Amino acid sequence: MFTANMLESIKKVEATREERMKTEPRRMTAEEKDTLLKEFHPDYREDGFAEIKVGPNKGQKAPKELTELIHSNSRLIKDKVDINRVDYDCDVLVIGGGGAGSSAAIEAHEAGADVMIVTKLRIGDANTMMAEGGIQAADKENDSPVQHYLDAFGGGHFAARPELLRRLVMEAPDAIKWLNDLGVMFDKDEDGRMVTTHGGGTSRKRMHACKDYSGAEIMRNLRDEVLNRKIPVVEFTSAVELIKDDKGQVAGAVLLNMETGDYMVARAKTVVIATGGAGRLHYQNFPTSNHYGATADGLILGYRAGAPLLYQDTIQYHPTGVAYPSQIFGALVTEKVRSLGAMLVNKDGEAYAHPLETRDVSASAIIRECAQGRGVETPLGSGVWLDTPMIEILHGEGTIEKRIPAMFRMYLNYDIDMRKQPILVYPTLHYQNGGLEIGGDGFTKAIDNLLVAGEAVGGIHGRNRLMGNSLLDIIVFGRNAGKAAAKKAKETVLGEMTLSHIEEYEKELAAAGIDTGKVSPMLLPNYARHEREEQN
Ligand code: MEZ
Ligand 1 centroid to 124 CA: how many Å? Predict the structure, then answer.
């Protein structure tokens, strides 16, 4: 299945393996990391970004593709909707049916609220489902939330909002217990203790996993719980704008039925945005590990209503996306492969960096190797080797099939046996470090009664996220958002509903002379457009 040049390079990987396994590559110094990031991390490529000209973050930069969505028009300028004809009335409206949205809905329901989920695909069609390697929590004797905090704070370049990160790490052990009690089948040893491993930048083994389909297993249980509780889920329906009331608090959302094109109105006392990430915007033309629905919708909804973004200029490129074969280009190769001992090796068989540097550093080092001609040529670019046969040498035969069975099967589909041959990887667009700004209680600071949870939040992780802290944040912040939204709904009296904020935003666009000719939120990526362009 590999090409001749790849097979040639594999010989060098094999020839250096024994010697490489005697000494791990050393960790980079802080100065070395800084220099590498500035030279090779995509966040530092000026031409990938554009200035935001309107709204709360005016004057700041964002990825070009996101800026274009921010600068685009509301659908509701052309398509008029009578917001006083209410189709759904509830206490808590959760926008998004992934892990954060489902956790929020479960807790809001538990607190006695009348809660409803609206999701543009089906419940569970989300990045949560795609997460592989695990979820962090400091719940063993040799570890503590303080240690977890220090790892994540350093890994995020000391930029995480302390009140958010504190909540993340302190509530992590309880998040694992909650999931375990719901029925999540975590990997456990013969004594019933959770099996935990390292991730990039962790000082303790605190990654809890369900083999290499941790997200799917977590989502399976969350979805069952939502359905068992009979929480209403309106599928194939997007939120396209938030509605406010005359007191300035959020009052619901305008919904679009994705099949019929009809608009509907959901009135709600509190709203939780849990719409996930932006991988399908393919920033800087990167492939993505993300779910089809990851188009930054919640960021646009919140921003147009007046909620500021935080760290919208920092993106996570997962170091190990599939570089070859082309059919699965950009798909995630879980960091767990490196946690289990596989080294990153260039075309000459050199291990050029420690396999568990933080993700931004690791991705930059791969980009450097390829940019400087030490990558292996592939049909779609180049990549470096992840020396997977090392796993079986280190931990014994059968480890790959036992610990990372989904990855093993994915490659076998293309006649690559990762137990015997290394695999080719290159960074893939994985996560938005930034998002809507919230306080420790989950509420946006700018709009009353509007909460945000999950990947749509900015500030939990700072400017780089560690492995396993995203599955954790959707649970911790999802659950808290649900509880807080239910409580706030009890004391909320809605005023008259309005979309005047949309009109104000449109005026601001016009005053800035902006006309992208497009509408946002995007809702679904438009791959068909690229095909047409190629044919012309
Ligand atoms: O947190 C993540 O992004 C994650 C667990 C990814 C992975 O490599 O498996």
Answer: 17
pLDDT, one tens digit per residue, over 349-373 is: 999 999 999 999 999 999 999 999 9
Cα gap 361→25, rounded to integer Å: 14
pLDDT (tens digit, 9 = 90+) per residue, 431-477?
999 999 999 999 999 999 999 999 999 999 999 999 999 999 999 99
Distance, CA of 436 to CA of 422 (rounded, Å): 40
Residues near ligand 1 (Cβ within 6 A)? 131-134, 334-336, 467-468, 470
Distance from Cα 415 to the centre of ligand 1, integer Å? 25
Distance between first and last Cα of the chain? 33
SS3 for 229-292 is: CCCCEECCEEEEEEEEECCCCEEEEEEEECCCCCEEEEEEEEEEECCCCCHHHCHHHCCECCCC
Tell me how far apart the alpha carbons of residues 31 and 406 are, in angstroms, rounded to a whole number: 37
Query: What is the C-alpha R_g of the chain?
Result: 23
For 80, the token pair is 């008029």
**62: Cβ contacts below 8 Å, ≥ 6 apart:** 49, 50, 52, 70, 309, 312, 313
Residue 157 · residue 462 · CB < 8 Å = yes
Cα separation, 95 vs 101, in Å, equals 7
For ligand 1, the distance from its centroid to the CA atom of residue 468, given in whole angstroms, is 6
pLDDT tens digits, 102-141: 999 999 999 999 999 999 999 999 999 999 999 999 999 9
Active-site amino acid positions: 318, 338
Interatomic CA distance for residues 14 and 6, integer angstroms:
12
pLDDT score of 536: 47
User: Looking at residues 206-214, what average pLDDT do you find?
Assistant: 98
Q: What share of the chain is helix, strand, coil (3-state, %, to 5)?
A: 40, 20, 40
Q: Mutation test of ligand 1: which of 332, 472, 476 has the most ligand atoms closer than 8 Å to its C-beta?
A: 332
Q: Which of 467, 470, 475 to mutate to test the pocket of ligand 1 (most atoms within 8 A of CB)?
A: 467
**What is the average per-residue pLDDT within 4-8?**
97
pTM, entire model: 0.97
With a pLDDT cut of 70, the percent of the chain lying above it is 99
Task: For residue 463, give every residue at least 6 positions away whose Cβ sits within 8 Å of its Cβ, in sequence order, or none.
Answer: 43, 156, 157, 159, 311, 314, 360, 433
Whole-number average pLDDT of the chain: 97
What are residue 321's DSSP bridge partners? 332, 426
